[in-house]
């Protein structure tokens, strides 16, 4: 603990440093059972003991930030610390695990060679939940035998995928998922003092914004600013063990501020993405500019369908198969969710089921399992009699994800979606807004909230969220456009509807049906028939009874009726029984 607190790399406020000290010292003193929200609020944060929801949120918020401080510390300065301290999500009792055996430790049968030359030993630390509930102290448990052997998993993946998924991964540490990223200090290309201020501000804001996205491990602000702005990405990849490098620059003239950003593959030095942002230079606007640009860049890189996950998915599609690791399953699930095709859903479902069995404390596979079972119910992938069972499973899996990660945005979005489809609209909205507060830059969260508000008739607010989601996405998903397309149809703006429907059609079956409606409304009968044929081929269950799907999606009856009227005018007719695939 003292090693961490003495490190200049630890990006923690004095209050969070005191928080860490209190948690560790109380645990080592055998008082782990006292680490509850109300006691921490009084002992660490100096409140008057009146504990309510606002006080509780302060403790949880500081705990979440402290976890991120520790993650950043261990990804750089603390990568080789002999003992790793973590604070599991949903609790305040810290866990302690060996990174490597102390030099005086004798050889043991419970050891395994570390591929980097160290030794992996068993974990020590916080007691099981039952012990904590009973008030048993850590001091006694420290006298126990080191808990068994920690598995060393070597993934023989082409192209060094192990580096991308796990590096650096201190042996004996908690499983680390997702690529490590370093953001280099943005370079100033002009001489103005304001530009230097803006460059430093964009760098710091970008690191903070990226940390809000699940799956990234980022070097802390001090560690990033300790690097050379012009450092070679490949050298950084080799020396720091990072998978990706972000570089950028700031320049300006009398009227314009220009921020350029690049995203590099740290294994090859390849530029994966680059963009230039021009903003008007106005008096007093630099603070707003730096926050807005950092949020825009972070959203492009970090969103579920953004640059990083797209690059990882491309590597997998190129034949890299790291033993179906849990993170790989998450990436495959996001690929499925671009189109919601049932033939893609089935193998992803099996992958995620294996992931949660292998890695039960990883929230995202549980959340995505909830999504997939929800899709089975709402898209008609299963017979009507099985829909209640699929919804029940969806709720169970999404709830499990939130229990594991109460502040995991993916988990919260999944639970919000299930609650919506169960008809619990207020609860769904509350959970979705909680997810949005955790990451205001995430396009999926924005789009889902906008979709659900619009479909219940709150058009102005809902479409505003949809537009924000589209603006923040480099390759918006088709369903982001669905409610805009429907709204244009209801207003009789058919040509504008067609332009929007062409985007919608790249997504789920609803989008394809909207394309048919748009062509039908404009008298393009051949094009409408072509879209309907695509719908029948890609989504036979949806095509058989679109009205049932709309009911499951909780559309207002007036919207559903107008939609079905448009679909019939486009030429849709209910398929005969003989054309319905068996089992659907």
UniProtKB/TrEMBL annotation:
Its protein name is Adenylate cyclase
**Keywords in alphabetical order:** Membrane, Transmembrane, Transmembrane helix
On the tree of life, the source organism's domain of life is Bacteria
Please give the start and end residues of each transmembrane region. Answer: 145-165
